[in-house]
């Protein structure tokens, strides 16, 4: 089965499983701390990537207004492995990460062999953290951090081969995800989206403009205390993973 458990679409689950079994992600030009000199198993590579991403400097502001909730290193590593299994994360490709936060997804893609990452983030402090993390990983020359508010500021994503995003879900501000979803449609390239498992608008929104929308997995997702029913405790919710492809 895919790295992400409890898939909500059995057909997609089976396809990703076959891709992983037949050709597990392995990029020979990736840094040795990811693939290992002797070519460790896929599970070992995922664990190494998870450890690396978990060690990144976090972005701690967690603004309620911006609905900032970070993708943890373990989930990011497993999700990126599934994206690679679909064939959308290939060696040398350009990845755009919308709502990048500390850069965990874009930098993880670089660690898996992507050639360039475009990190789009509205929060200036988060941009500083993403730049710092890129430098600490040795990817400063491969990363472009763009401070921009989608829907208000123009952002050129025409060079992206794949878009990855964990956008605001609209829990605090209704339709907060719309500028992100609209930017994906304008980019017109395969996109992988993490969103609330309760969201019902993703598939019809993209299918209405001729895209395919396939939900291929779900996972528990940690929410900061500000979004939890318990003001002093982190909460958990269910996240769904989508592959969105233009016509």
Question: Main traits of this protein?
Answer:
8 helices, 247 residues, seven-stranded mixed β-sheet, alpha/beta, Rossmann fold, 33% helix
Average pLDDT works out at 82
Give the CA-based shape: globular
Helicity, as a percent range:
25-40%
CATH superfamily: Vaccinia Virus protein VP39
The CATH top-level class label: Alpha Beta
Strand order of the largest sheet: 3-2-1-4-5-7-6
Q: State the total count of DSSP E strands.
A: 7
Instruction: Give a short account of the largest sheet.
Output: 7 strands, mixed
Total count of domains: 1
By CATH, the topology is: Rossmann fold
- Give the terminus-to-terminus CA distance: 27 Å
Following the backbone from N to C, one meets helices and strands in this order, namely HHHHEHEHEEHEHEE
* Radius of gyration based on Cα positions: 17 Å
Structural class: alpha/beta
Report the total helices. 8
Strand content: 15-25%
CATH architecture: 3-Layer(aba) Sandwich
Q: What are the segments in which pLDDT stays under 50 over at least 5 consecutive residues?
A: 5-39, 227-233
Organism: uncultured marine group II/III euryarchaeote KM3_16_D09
Keywords: Methyltransferase, Transferase
Pfam family, one: MTS
Family: Belongs to the methyltransferase superfamily. PrmA family.
């Amino acid at each position: 089965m895919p790295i992400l458990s409890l898939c909500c679409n059995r057909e997609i689950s089976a396809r990703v499983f076959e891709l992983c079994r037949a050709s597990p992600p392995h990029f020979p030009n990736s840094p040795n701390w990811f693939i290992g000199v002797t070519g460790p198993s896929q599970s070992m590579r995922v664990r190494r990537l998870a450890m690396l991403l978990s060690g990144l400097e976090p972005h701690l502001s967690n603004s309620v207004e911006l609905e900032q909730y970070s993708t943890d290193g373990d989930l990011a590593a497993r999700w990126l492995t599934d994206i690679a299994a679909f064939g959308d994360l290939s060696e040398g490709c350009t990845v755009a990460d919308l709502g990048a936060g500390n850069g965990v997804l874009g930098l993880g893609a670089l660690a898996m062999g992507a050639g360039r990452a475009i990190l789009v983030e509205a929060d200036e402090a988060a941009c500083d953290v993403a730049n710092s993390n890129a430098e600490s990983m040795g990817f400063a020359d491969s990363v472009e951090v763009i401070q921009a508010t989608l829907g208000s500021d123009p952002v050129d994503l025409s060079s992206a081969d794949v878009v990855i995003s964990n956008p605001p879900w609209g829990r605090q501000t209704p339709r907060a995800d719309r500028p992100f979803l609209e930017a994906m449609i304008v980019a017109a390239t395969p996109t992988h989206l993490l969103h609330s498992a309760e969201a019902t608008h993703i598939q019809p929104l993209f299918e209405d403009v001729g895209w395919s929308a396939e939900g291929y997995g779900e996972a528990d997702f940690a929410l900061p205390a500000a979004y939890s029913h318990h003001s002093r405790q982190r909460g958990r919710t269910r996240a769904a993973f989508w592959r969105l492809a233009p016509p």
